Each structure stands twice: as structure tokens, then as C-alpha cells.
Amino acid sequence: MRRSPDSRWKFVADARMEPEHPIESACWRHVNDVEASATIERTVEIYNEQFERERLQPWILAGASDSAIRDRVGVPTDVTRAYRHLFFDVSAFRDELEKRLWVAKYQGSADGKAFLQQAVVLDVEAVAYAMGLPAHMDPTKVLESAMSEQYFRGMALRYARLGSTEATACASMLRGAASQASELMAVRPATTTDALFKLVTRDTTKNVEDLAPHGEILH
Predict the structure, then answer these.
(1) Do residue 86 and residue 158 come from a single domain?
(2) Domain for residue 82, yes or no?
(3) pTM for the full model?
(4) Does residue 65 share a domain with residue 124?
(5) CA–CA gap between residue 55 and residue 40 (Å, rounded)
(6) Average pLDDT in the 72-95 region?
(7) What is the C-alpha to C-alpha distance for residues 58 and 47, in angstroms, rounded to an integer?
(8) What is the Cα–Cα distance from 200 to 210, expressed in whole angstroms?
(9) Most buried among 15, 116, 117, 157, using CB within 10 Å?
(10) Cα separations (Å) of 210 from 78, 203, 215?
(11) Domain span at residue 50?
(12) What is the C-alpha separation between 191 and 189, in angstroms, rounded?
């Protein structure tokens, strides 16, 4: 049975007894007028205001930390923490398919859905860019993205008739991808895998003339 990301909020709102979890307890006490909480009040405001909700949830879906969200959009970490728990619990998605299904069926505004799509398909920086905020781009990642984009677009046209416009475009895209791959290899820091590959494939042969003077066996 599918669980919605805001199921904890619904549980707390309907609970007759105070829950044990600290955030749920604070929420229950707030909504039942036992003890006011500025943190819970703000999370409820965000949840009930579609504009704000649609500009917080994509960050969470993209994997941004509470402190990163504070730095980008100014929402205090305690508010984001409570919001995650009560209103947007991403652990409700059992797998990537459920997460993408939820986004595909999203019924909010067009902008809100677009932000969620950026979050689930790309990353935090794509969300920032879509919202008109500064995006921190890693040059290496830019190269990787450009290479992938050109490569897969080119491969999609690989069965085009020779001499056709599509075939020409395919060849151009693949050349561009190869060029970017070459540039990426030049700037990308060496990894452990690279080091092992060089170690395994390095030239271990010696010239016979170098061996003889030291009396090494040649057969």
C-alpha cells in the first residue's frame, strides 16, 4: 500500500493521544492548543501555502541538506527538519519508480511540477537555476553533461539514412561528444581505477641488451 509523503501530518492531526516522537509531539501540542510552537506554525504555513510549498519540496526531493536549504532560501533548519518529518517524508517512496510516479501525478501549478521534475531528473543546482537562484556549477560536471547530451542525442540518430540531414547531425554530435570526452580526460583528476589500470597495463618488458650485462637469464 502506498504511503503519502504527508502521512505523518495526517496521523498527528487525527491523533487523540500525544505521540512520542518529539516533532510529532510538538505538532500535536500546537494544533491542540496545548503549547504553541513557532517552528510548527511556520511548517504548517508553508504546507498550506502552495507557492511556498512548491518552492521548498523540490530542494528536499533533490537531496539538499537542511543547512543548504537555509543558505539558499533562508528557511531555518529546525523548520525544514520538522517539515521533512511531517509534510514531506521522502522515505514514503519505496523506490525511484514511486518517486517519479508521484512527480508525474503532481496536481499543483505548472511551475511547481517543473521544479519537482528538475529535482528528480537532475539535481539541487538545477532546482536553484529553475528558481532563478545562483547555481554552483562544477566545470567537470558541465563537461560530463554536455558530453552525455551530445552522445545520446547522436546515438538516437545512428540508424538514419546515409547522406540524410539526420545522419549528418548524428556524426556532428558524436564528434562533439568525442571532443568533450577528450577534454574531460585531460582535466578530470586521476582516480584509483586509473592508477590501477596504468599499473596493470604498464610496459614491463626490457631490452635484451639491457639484461645481458647483468647476467640475467634470457630464456
Answers:
(1) no
(2) yes
(3) 0.75
(4) yes
(5) 18
(6) 96
(7) 13
(8) 22
(9) 116
(10) 70, 15, 10
(11) 7-130
(12) 6
Same domain, 67 and 124: yes
- Residue 83 to residue 212: CA distance in whole angstroms: 76
Distance of alpha carbon 2 from alpha carbon 8, whole angstroms: 13
Q: Are 102 and 93 in contact (CB under 8 A)?
A: yes
For residue 219, the model assigns a pLDDT of 44
Summarised one tens digit per residue, pLDDT across range 148-166 is 888 888 888 888 888 899 9
The grid cell for 89 is: 517524508
Q: What is the pLDDT of residue 162?
A: 87
Classify 52 as helix, strand or coil.
helix
User: CA dihedral defined by 170, 176, 181, 182, rounded to 10 degrees?
Assistant: 130
Overall domain count for the chain:
2
**What is the predicted pLDDT for the residue at 200?**
54
Whether residue 159 sits in one domain with residue 93: no
CB-CB contact of 105 with 114 (8 Å): no
pLDDT at 192 over 60: no
Top-confidence residue, 30 or 139: 30
Residues 18, 7: Cα–Cα separation, whole Å: 16
Gap between the Cα atoms of 114 and 119, Å rounded = 9
Contact 24, 30 (CB under 8 A): no
Same domain, 60 and 117: yes
